[in-house]
TrEMBL record:
InterPro entries: Kinase-like_dom_sf. It comes from the Eukaryota. This is Aminoglycoside phosphotransferase domain-containing protein.
């Protein structure tokens, strides 16, 4: 575990009523092992390499000689999880979404378990800066597109009046000190296009949308690029399809200290994503013209996501907006 992860873990224990990882591991041995494993099993408990700021996570591994036969993830959280999204995601996608189970509380901290997720977090690939084969990248794009598009229900009318809702979003960005007038204009043009095409959004099916589908939260098989698991469905709700498509941008490019950088293969990767989404929608009886609405839904999701983060002062909010919005069809038409 690197220094940054150790700091995150130490800060969690400063803020909660638990004293240390050792106390958590002892709770697992005293209260959970008999529910999860056979009494004769040889169990090893260790911290997960990637820790979150609001939780502590460890792994109980069942050893069979020199091998690990199976493992269970145990997470201690200060804030209670909303398990609806996880259980609905598990129903729709099976074992790709490890089912989370509430195991009670310990000194006011909520305790959950789930099967250990196969594969490696995609973020590890980004951190290492690996140059992946195109076929590998296309496989990951295909899988993510189908995960996003398959969790669908029929369309329902949007309850937000377009003028008031778009005005509300615009007012949030008015509070942000844009360094580039170009990015501000991209935001305003996007809001205008969404307002003018609001009626198209009502045609889209409702999709179960995890609100934090970042590269930390999906695992891939390193050789093939297949997505093996999708984690953190806390707070997932049904929203118009496309509302969280901006998370797919992490497969089309990456952020640097200087700004957003597209992969050289972006055109091919994005085309594969759109083709896979269309393949799912076509099987559900949607027409090709309905795809027009997906761009407006995606951009609305981008603006909603970053409007909630206007307090960022490190420059990244503006760089993300610039990197994402410059690919909108109405921006390309201006070039």
């Amino acid at each position: 575990m690197d220094h940054n992860q150790e700091t995150i873990m130490a800060n969690f224990f400063k803020e909660c009523s638990l004293s240390s990882p050792t106390e958590c591991h002892q709770f697992v041995r005293d209260r959970l092992l008999h529910q999860l494993f056979s009494p004769k099993d040889d169990i090893e408990i260790s911290p997960l390499l990637h820790q979150e700021s609001m939780s502590y996570t460890c792994v109980a591994k069942c050893k069979a000689g020199d091998q690990i036969s199976h493992s269970v993830v145990v997470q201690f959280r200060c804030i209670e999880l909303d398990l609806y999204g996880n259980h609905e995601g598990s129903r729709l996608h099976g074992t790709m979404v490890p089912l989370v189970t509430f195991r009670g509380s310990h000194h006011g901290v909520y305790v959950y378990t789930s099967p250990f997720a196969a594969g490696k977090p995609y973020v590890e690939t980004l951190i290492r800066g690996d140059s992946l084969p195109l076929e590998n990248m296309l496989t990951t794009v295909k899988d993510l597109a189908r995960i996003m598009a398959q969790s669908t229900n029929p369309a329902i009318a949007d309850i937000h009046p377009p003028d008031s809702y778009v005005t509300q979003l615009a007012s949030k960005f008015d509070k942000f000190d844009f360094k580039s007038p170009t990015t501000r204009q991209r935001v305003l043009r996007s809001l205008s296009n969404i307002r003018d095409n609001w009626n198209l959004l009502a045609k889209l099916p409702q999709a179960l949308s995890p609100p934090d589908l970042t590269p930390f939260n999906y695992h891939v098989e390193p050789i093939s690029g297949d997505i093996t698991a999708v984690l953190d469905w806390n707070g997932a709700t049904y929203q118009p399809l496309g509302r969280n498509f901006h998370f797919a941008e992490n497969l089309f490019g990456f952020m640097t200290k200087q700004g957003w950088q597209d992969h050289p293969e972006r055109t091919e990767l994005e085309a594969r994503f759109k083709d896979e989404v269309w393949d799912v929608l076509r099987s559900q009886g949607y027409a090709k013209e309905d795809l027009r609405a997906l761009e407006y839904s995606k951009v609305l999701g981008i603006l909603e996501y970053y409007a909630a983060r206007v307090e960022w002062r490190n420059g990244y909010l503006e760089m993300f907006l610039e990197g994402y919005l410059r690919h909108c069809s109405w921006e390309v038409d201006l070039v």
